[in-house]
Write a structure and sequence with these properties.
Blueprint lengths: L16 H19 L12 H6 L8 H9 L3 H7 L1 H22 L12 H17 L17
Length: about 150
Amino acid sequence: MTDYPVSAKRRRLHPAAAPIAVGVVGLAAAVMVHFIDPNEPGNYPTCPWLMLTGTFCPGCGTTRAVAALTHLDVLGAAQMNIFAVAVVPFVAFWYIKWLYQSFRPPKATRTTMASPVWLYLLLAAILLYWLVRNLPFGAFLAPGATWFA
């Protein structure tokens, strides 16, 4: 067997490379929607699910909600997609946990970002939100619906 020189050996990325890359991409996307208004027609594509079915997907309004959050308009963001706004603290917690664990020494056991139970509960909540926002009594969950007249 040939022993390759050290410089030719494959180098591994630091374990924090993935969470840092995800954070940079997320921050870049937030900056983009802050400066390129998603409320102006033509700036972003229409939701394919909405175009095909005429119903709202769980993500409809999320881009406008993120834009409102970057302008510190929490109520406006909630009116676009209340579920996305409600999930932000949980996603932030899991992201920070992932980033923190990537800088810690490796353990003998594999760590996960979230327990599978929480991920199944999140999936169930997304499906329930998707269903309710498209029923007549859930019209207040439609993107841009006004809650206070």
